[in-house]
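Budget justification aside, the reviewers requested a transparent look at the raw inputs and outputs of the sequence design task funded under Objective 1. We therefore reproduce one unedited record. The lines immediately below are the structure tokens for a 58-residue chain.
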């Protein structure tokens, strides 16, 4: 145990592969969300602020 015979054995991980790879996928999705979400919010807030400033200058 410890060394896999083939790549498919590595992917299957003795029958636990679906749980291992699913947990990696969920963790990656959470990390990506934590990076992208604040950037999108920041861009939206900046554009709203610019819109307000333009409205006030009229």
């Amino acid at each position: 145990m410890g060394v896999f015979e083939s790549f498919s054995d590595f992917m299957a991980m003795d029958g636990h592969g679906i749980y291992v790879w699913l947990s990696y996928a969920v963790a990656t999705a959470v990390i990506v969300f934590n990076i992208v979400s604040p950037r999108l919010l920041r861009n939206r807030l900046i554009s709203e602020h610019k819109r307000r400033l333009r409205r006030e200058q009229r």
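Helices lie at 7-12, 17-57. The mean pLDDT is 93. Computational costs for records of this kind are itemized in the attached budget.
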